[in-house]
User: Fold this.
Amino acid sequence: MVAMSDAGSEEFDDDQGNLGEYDGERNEAGERHGVGKAVLPNGDTYQGLYENGKRSGQGTYRFKNGARYVGEYDMNKKHGQGTFYYPDGSRYEGSWVEDQRQGHGVYTYANGDIYDGDWLHHQRHGQGVYTYHDTGSRYVGTWVTGKMESAGEFIHLNHKYQGNFVNNNPSGPGKYVFDIGCEQHGEFTQVDQDGADGEDDDPISTTVLKWRPTSITSLTRMTPAKDQKKPPSPEPGKGPEGKEKQEEEEKLKVEATVTEGQALAEEQTGRTKTPTTPEPETQKPPEPEDKED
Assistant:
């Protein structure tokens, strides 16, 4: 998994005096106040509201590298609701607190993946849904400092996995639920696996996740009491032997369903043992504090 990151701010000296060009309203003290437009020395521009010399209220900040923020400011910082458009085509739309993504927001990545949920200090944190554009699969659950943690479920086209996650990986007891009508219970454990030889011809051991199935059950289906009817009297030629034959047929149907579920579970386990979030490389442009007096 490639962690989403934002480069640090490029600071400007507060004592440089009036930076760049400004065209707009001012207060009695000569400070920028009201509607105005500023062009910073580095080529960035801001057009919007000022209050006592600081960006405050609705505004649009355009970076010279193509990035753009449209939204609310407070004391020169992104604060409130706003949308940030990044040069790689990704964008974030949602809540900001002191220049950081915080609260509820939707991040659309350059590859089409979407995260819709809670944020804290620029990272996914809380409840959220990550949807994969290529497959339509999605993770629904808890996030902690940008990673899948605690209870969650990974939902695919015809089945889903429910359980706990640790550091983006399923961990401990869980189950696969298949649309064909069965559940496979088990647990994910970490096992050591020998790989290629090292410099001293010693095998390199790596830790991988292993799904260990324990049982397969049918989905529980409740029958309303009002739909229950008195069993019909056995027809001629369908006594106890006929009943046993019917039960045997039902048993065979269940076994066939379980076998199919087992095959799907093994296929899924072998293909994606560690469901992760394949985020694109998103090295964000520096966001200068662009302080101007």
